[in-house]
Amino acid sequence: MLYVGKINEKKYLLEYDENNGPVREVSNDGSVTKRKMALYENMDGVFIGVVSSKNGPYLFVNEKKFQFINKVWTARVIEHNGSHTFHLSMPDGAAIVHDYSPPEVDEIDPWMTSRFEDFFFWLAEKQDDSLFIDMWTDD
Fold first, then answer.
1. What are 94-114's pLDDT values in tens digits?
2. Whether this model's pTM surpasses 0.85
3. Secondary-structure percent of the chain, ordered helix, strand, coil, rounded to 5
4. Which of 12, 13, 23, 57 allows an S-S link to 3, with CB 3.0 to 4.6 Å?
5. How far apart are CA 127 and CA 116, in angstroms?
6. Quick one: average pLDDT of 111-124?
7. Domain locations in the chain?
8. What is the pLDDT of residues 21-60, one digit of tens each?
9. DSSP 72-111
């Protein structure tokens, strides 16, 4: 069992079984001290995330897994006035479309942008990034 965190929220973790997928969200009480390179988001009960592995990172959508190497899925985000739409196309022809509000930006932090704090933008930008794939490949 491993614990997966979110990019912009620290109060929850996802218990994740690498063989069977997401188990449940739990409160982050600080007792989990070591986590694997992994991130997730909860889209109205659908868990989507990325986990590092020896074969390179993989995308999970609930119990389904899709590798970044030899990728057969695509992700993109469309920005609207004050909202975003995430599109994920999967190899079986299924698609996920998720409308959401972008994360709030800390105006004091000059390095922070809504894209920096946005899991869906992060996923769309990293899907074909060879440096990211190398960094998220476990030894």
1. 899 999 988 776 666 666 556
2. yes
3. 10, 40, 50
4. 13
5. 15
6. 78
7. 2-135
8. 999 999 998 888 767 899 999 998 999 999 999 999 999 9
9. --EEEEEE-SS-EEEEEE-TTS-EEEEEEPPPPP-TT-TT
pLDDT, average across residues 63-67: 94
Q: Which residue has the tokens 């614990």?
A: 3
Residues near 89 by beta carbon (within 8 Å), at least 6 away in sequence:
73, 74, 75, 95
Q: Is 43:96 a contact under the CB 8 Å cutoff?
A: yes
Confidence check: pLDDT of 86 > 70: yes
Which candidate, 59, 8, 4, 9, places its Cα nearest to that of 37? 4
Token pair listed for 124? 């769309």
Q: CA nearest 40: which of 14, 69, 19?
A: 14
The secondary structure of residue 1, as a DSSP letter, is -
